[in-house]
Amino acid sequence: MGTSKWTAPYLGVQHLESTDRRYRASVTEYSGFADLSLWTPGCGFNPERQQFETAEQARSAGALWLSSINSRQGVAA
Asked: What SS3 state is found at 14?
């Protein structure tokens, strides 16, 4: 079981979850940039945030982050 797929965009927002569903990357696309939120257990409403020039760059970074988590948990990407 590998990393799930990005959700379909809804109002410029997409999500990708780790295989255990405890971690999530969310991308919000704005005019001119994209915001990546990295949700971890216990972060409440304060995820780590990064900005990118494009949504594609943000999705790539989010997928890489979750792939790293899945690898640590012994799940093939």
From this structure: strand
Rounded CA-CA distance 58/70 in Å is 18
pTM listed for this prediction? 0.86
- pLDDT tens digits, 51-74: 999 999 999 999 999 999 988 877
Predicted pLDDT of residue 75 = 60
CATH code for the domain in which residue 66 is found: 2.20.140
Q: CB within 8 A of 71, min separation 6: which ones?
A: 77
- Total structural domains in the chain? 1
Q: What is the domain range of residue 32?
A: 13-72
